[in-house]
Amino acid sequence: MAVPESNEFFIDPSRCIGCNGCVQACTECDTHKGYSMIQLDYIDQASSPQTVPVVCMHCESPTCAEVCPADAIKRTDDGVVQSARKPRCIACNNCVLACPFGVPKMNTAMHLMMKCDMCYDRTSVGKKPMCASVCPSQALFFGTRDEIERLRPQSRPLNAFKFGAQIIKTKVNMMVPARSTVEHLDVVGALSEPTIGNQLEDGLWPNTFEIAESESESGKS
Amino acid sequence: MKAENPEIVAPYDQTPERQPHWRQEFPIDTPQDDYRSRRDFTKLMVITSVAFAVGQAWIVLLSRLRRVRGDAPVKDIAGVDELSVGSAKVFHYPGPTDACLLVRVSERQFVAYGQKCTHLSCPVIPKTEAQRLHCPCHEGSFDLLTGQPLAGPPRRPLPRIFVTIRGNRIYANRVQQGVV
Question: Which chain A residues are closer than 8 Å to B26 by Cβ?
Answer without folding.
Answer: 71
